[in-house]
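Worked example 3. Consider a protein that binds manganese (II) ion.
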Amino acid sequence: MQSLRYIHFLVKRRTISSFHLNIANNIHYHSTMAAEEAVFLDYKKNTCQYKGYRHAAHAFIYCKMATSNEKMKHAVMMQLRFDGTLGFPGGFVDGGENLENGLNRELYEEIGLSQANHFNENDYFGSWYHEHISLMDHFYVKKLTENDFVKLEKRTLECHDWGGETMGIIRVPLQESSKNPKFYGLSQFFQHNFIGNAMHQLIQVLIEKNILPAVDVQDASVNRDQ
Ligand code: GTP
Ligand code: MN
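Given these inputs, the predicted complex is written out as structure tokens:
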């Protein structure tokens, strides 16, 4: 697996540049990764080079937990998909459809996202270009209040795709183990199968949004790389 190398790259990058990669970095990065790895880019600034692919949009939804919750400081939402893999809610954006509208439509179907929590372009995080399947996957990140997050979790049981496309939303286990301070729960979680590069998306956002220290994410991913 490439994830440890990927995290090294992220950690290093964080010290030398801002969050979004420029295209030159992407080309270098792409050439050093396995064929199935996707290229991270700021699609909104580089649309001209990437026409002719299908578009999808997925969402990283999270909240900070009240300090009374000693186990997890944040809750991050992922889902078990119909195909048995773990991924983020979202889906294909229809031709001609605005990316955020497509994302909000998919999120309503899959998790019952209400209009009050709709995504807009300020929530754009970046995109991954999957050359081998001609897919441009756009990624959005939104922090909700704990109250809204919990309400959303409950609403998922009543939404259209429940039991069809969405087999259940989950919270990513981010708790520190008392026996092993290196986020043991996350390290087990990384052993699952993820759709596309969803695991990398998770890793990158955990680091970039300071949800967990990069070094802890790195430690948790070690088993996955062996
Ligand atoms: P269908 O049209 O029924 O497949 O569902 P959908 O519109 O909800 O699409 P889906 O969520 O499956 O996303 C479209 C494509 O994006 C999938 O075929 C995967 O290749 C990819 N994909 C799905 N979820 C994720 C994710 O969490 N991360 C990444 N990187 N890619 C994903
Ligand atoms: Mn979907």
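Take a moment to read the result before moving on. Residues 3-225 form a domain with the Nucleoside Triphosphate Pyrophosphohydrolase fold (CATH 3.90.79.10). The chain has seven helices and eight strands.
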